Amino acid sequence: MPEAREDPLTSDERNELARLRAEVRTRRRFSWKSVVSAVLLVLGCLLAPVSLLTVWVHNQVADTDRFVATASPLIRDPAVRTVVTDRVTEAVSSQVDLRGLATNAVDALAAQGFPPIVTTTMQGLVGPLTASVRTFVHDKIADLVASPGVASLWDQTIRTAHEQLNSVLSGDSKAVVISGGQVQLDLAPFIVVARQQLVDSGFALAGRIPDLHPTIAIADAAGLVKARTGYALLDNAATWLPWVMLVLLALGVFLARRHRRALVGAGLGVAVSMLVVAVGLMIARGILVNAVQPQASVAAGDAYDIFVRYLRAGLRTVLAVGVVVALGAFLAGPSSTAVGLRRGVTRGIAWLRGSSGLRTGSVGPWVHAHLNALRVALVAVAVLIFVFLDRPSGLTVGLIALVLLAFLGVVQLLDQPAAEKES
Q: Which parts pass through the membrane (predicted)?
């Protein structure tokens, strides 16, 4: 009998050959699942940037701590401080006629009988004196703006303003109510403060003033109602839209004829959508910088970068996740490139195991028997670590992927069938 020849094909190559033969033999019919899958994947990828923007805006509007963390660095930015200092100096100088004061001082000296040569000389120094005083004022204001006290005051001011705005938009404010089609401001807090100040000033009878709640109309209610409606919609969208996006992508992959290819497409689609957002942010920054005065362009750019830095961090994270998912699905697929890469890694690990004389003992056969379960468990652990991390960055996603690959390599290194077990 002729000897049976050893099959030169690997298991991956045999599976790929079987799949190609099946495609040749089988006439492809129209599948509604494929159409639905494509539609779901496209919708999911389109919702990815919308979800990211919605969550970011909601965090800025509804989360006071996040808003303060976003806006707090503004007053600490050198370019912004320069613009604030220049603007405050300009405002102060506009209220004080430094040149006029200097001229009046010289005229007063002349009226007191000072020699003309002295007053004439001092009159020529009015311009430099005015500039020196302005510089002095500018430097003092710059020191004030750069002081820790102003930074703390800035943080407290934006926190208080945001809390008040948030309470008004959410309908929790007791001082701002809607009545008779008007937005009414309750003056009770002002009366309490005024009563206490009167008592502190010695007017003890003011302590008998009861708690009063007079109101004044400050705006039409229609605008506030729309704002509250928009606030509620934003709150709901930020809560559910990301989950809707994930469900659409998951259903699209599930209904696809080729799950791995659909997963690759979903990952790349999400990554591309994040690149579109990044380009949009760059264009918006250019428009903003070009719209302001040249002397304020640096400050405007820095302020924009500060406000959108959390949005940029979020899109980098989602971009990294999309790339990792697409790359992982591709490398696990049956394409010749993926098969070749896996074969090369397997041969490299086998060579390392052989050259190092690694003895796996009873661990090798156990790992071989549970190889797929170990791989799934490692991937699941990596996903759980990512999910439970607080605000993971794109770099964090990359590190998790690299550590996962390292552990998968260790599992492959320990994989040894019982027949290869050393006695």
A: 35-57, 237-256, 263-284, 313-333, 369-389, 395-414
Helix residue ranges per DSSP H, 63-178: 64-71, 78-95, 98-111, 116-124, 126-145, 148-170
Looking up tokens 């959410």 gives 170
Domain layout of the chain by residue ranges: 11-45+235-420
Show Cβ contacts of residue 421 under 8 Å, excluding neighbours closer than 6 positions: 360, 361, 362, 364, 365
pLDDT in tens, 112-157: 665 666 556 656 555 666 666 667 777 777 787 788 877 887 888 7
**DSSP state letter for 220:** E
Closest C-alpha among 1, 6, 19 to residue 334? 19
Phi, psi angle pair for 258, to nearest 5°: -115, 105
pTM: 0.69
Q: What phi, psi does 216 have (nearest 5°)?
A: -130, 145
Query: pLDDT tens across 382-422, in order?
Result: 888 888 887 788 888 889 889 988 888 888 877 777 654 44
Q: 361 φ, ψ to 5°? A: 60, -135
Residues composing the chain: 423
